[in-house]
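Table S2 (continued). Query chain:
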Amino acid sequence: MRPFAERPCTLVVCRGCCCGSPRKHPDVDHEGQLARLRAAADASGGRMAVRTSECLGPCGQANVVVVQPSAEGRRRGARAAWFGWVLDDDATDDILAWAAAGGPGVAEPSPALELQRVPVPLPPSRRPRP
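Corresponding output:
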């Protein structure tokens, strides 16, 4: 594991019940999308990483990708940015371009990517009870 000082910009890709599911989005090449993200991370020389999560929560906005800041972005006060509806090559390209430029705290996301930003969901312990 890398020390915190070397932490890259990390893309956390939801692949739970709704995100990455051909049942919900049958016209999306979910495996191809994940392969593209991983290939870009492999080619980044350690500046970008990709990992998957079983479920990130906002299922109504599938596919969800969270862009976590690098160590440099964190030093600048950045927090993770959440994006929904990452269902096509354009959205994937925008996320990859931003992460390659440094991601949160280092570079500004494109205006198109900003339109896909979703609020950070509350953890289960902080959600209102019905």
